[in-house]
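Q: Hi! First time doing this. I have a protein sequence and I read that you can turn it into a structure. Is that right? Here it is:
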Amino acid sequence: MDPIYPFEPIMSDTIPAEPHWRHEIKWDGTRIVTYRYQGDTKLFNRKLNERTRHYPELLDVSSYCSASSVILDGEMIALAQDGKPSFHEVMRRDLIQKLDRVEEMQRIVPITYMIFDIVYYDGEWINRQPLSDRLELLHRIVTPNERVQLVQNHDGEQLFEVIRQQGMEGIVCKDLRSAYAIGGKDARWRKVKNYGDILAVIGGFTLNDGIVNAVLLGQYDQAGKLWYIGHSGTGRLTKAEWRELTLTLAPTAASSSPFANRPDRYKDAYWVTPKLTAKVQYSEWRWREGRTLRQPSIQAFVDAPPERCKLPWVE
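A: Yes, that's right. Below is the predicted 3D structure, encoded as structure tokens:
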């Protein structure tokens, strides 16, 4: 069975109030689709990169799902010390290079699979059925356990207020009449965010006692020019990870700035060839006015090519 590109929500500023809408927490994790077919189980992320060996907790599908063959869609999450989902934490599991460390990381970073949809069931593609029917089936065949949960429905406005108070990512609103569009992205699924996040590439850094203490961030325009959009020395990185970042950036040193505009930290900056990308969270960005990110913080480094870091007007 070939993996599929999952259905994606679009951005929205409003929360639909009609009764045919469902509202879920937008988990700050990584999308994982589980395939159980002819006795074999495989896991893939949204870019169709296999993650089967990264999450052995999910491979015994029969322990939580009664289907003989199935495709389940969900979000893999890990909790930070504050008890909230953390993209940084789950990336510690998802980006493991040496797979002999998986067993160790299972203890260090426990994960939970938040299942929210089903696409294929016992030999039949059910993606064209309405979401309401797919959810009814999902709740009938999945038995939650310590590492597997079913995503719940909530009142949209109340849920978003709780998300705002807790400083979490946002909510996802889904039309219960919607089919599952494989490889699709449209307004039948909408994400309403409490804050913004983007992918940015690192074009420079500053040092404190020989250790990186801030990185200079950029995104590309349509002509391929890299524009400085702000710097960040905060986020979810530990001291050890800042030291590791210093070692990672050293081999990419460059003699001149890669940015088309002048960064506000250019006097004490060291330049690098833009190779390393990160998920960056921010509170405000008036990019049409030429302003840099407000309160940017590094959430995690990601396995994404620099060319995916595009300014909003070329998305």
